[in-house]
Each structure stands twice: as structure tokens, then as C-alpha cells.
Amino acid sequence: MTDAQDIPQERMSEYGRLFAHALTGRERTGAGLMFRFEARPGVEEWVRDLSRREAACCPFFNYIIRITGGGDVAWLIATDGDPVAEAILDEMYRLPDVVADGFPRPAAPTRQRRTDHQLLTRRSGDLGVLSRRSGLTTKCNEM
């Protein structure tokens, strides 16, 4: 995070816009991370520009951009196996799931699985038992 001319939030927005526009796939490889983009007009230049800015921020990665046999733009972000760099690549792999059109995606709602008769929750050392049928909550100190 050395010579970058932009700030990380600007690059995250750029990733989101690029992913929304042209991302066709991603994969973790033995060498690092591969993003694949549809070769629409301007996409290769867009990827190269973002790659240059990313390299200014994170020079410990190797950045390789190539056109695949199918005509797509492939962007490999590679490391020498450094554990910290690998952890960053894991986070970068998740970027398409967490940014969209340059903005963070809202968290998906979580669903709790319940049994047919009871939902047990633990609060402040007490065990609360909620009966789905009666809708009543009973505190149980012993079970």
C-alpha cells in the first residue's frame, strides 16, 4: 500500500462496476486468483488500468493479463505463497459477492432453523424455551 494514486474505496467501487459489467468467472489457482471477463469493447484496457493501480497499492503480487483462446480477458493475481498475501487473495476472491455496481451488497437475510415444537435460545446464562405452538416463553434455570 505504497504508491497508489487512488484510495482503496475507489478501487473497490471500480471492482464492483467492472464485475457488474463483464465478470464471467473466477477461480483460485495454485498460483493465486484468476478473474475472467467478457471481452467487451474497453474491458481489456479497464482491467489493465485497474491492475496498474492495484500494483501500486500491493506490489507484493504479480499481475498478469492475457486474452484467452475464447477471447475473454483473464486477470491472474499471483503470489509466492506468503500466508498474508494468500489471505488477501481469499478476500479478493470474495469481492464479486460483496460489491455490486461499486457499492457494498446488502447482507443476505439469515434464516434460523427451528424444530417443530421448540426453539431453544441461550440468554444471559438462562435457557429460554420458546414454544412455537403456544407462543409463550418460559425461562428454565435447570434442564
N- to C-terminal distance: 54 Å
Per DSSP E runs of 2 or more residues, the count of β-strands stands at: 9
Helicity, in percent? Answer: 25-40%
Q: Stretches where pLDDT falls below 50 for ≥5 residues?
A: 110-143
Order of helices and strands: HEEHEEHEEEEE
Count up the helices: 3
User: Which range does the strand content fall in?
Assistant: 25-35%
Mean pLDDT: 75
Instruction: State Rg.
Output: 23 Å
- Across the major sheet, the strand order is 1-2-4-3
**What best-fitting shape do the alpha-carbon axes yield?**
globular
**Biggest sheet, in brief?**
4 strands, antiparallel
Structural class: alpha+beta
Explain the layout of strands and helices:
Layout: H1 8-22, E1 23-28, E2 32-37, H2 43-57, E3 62-67, E4 73-78, H3 83-98, E5 99-100, E6 103-104, E7 118-123, E8 126-131, E9 137-140
Antiparallel strand pairs: 1-2, 2-4, 3-4, 5-6, 7-8, 8-9
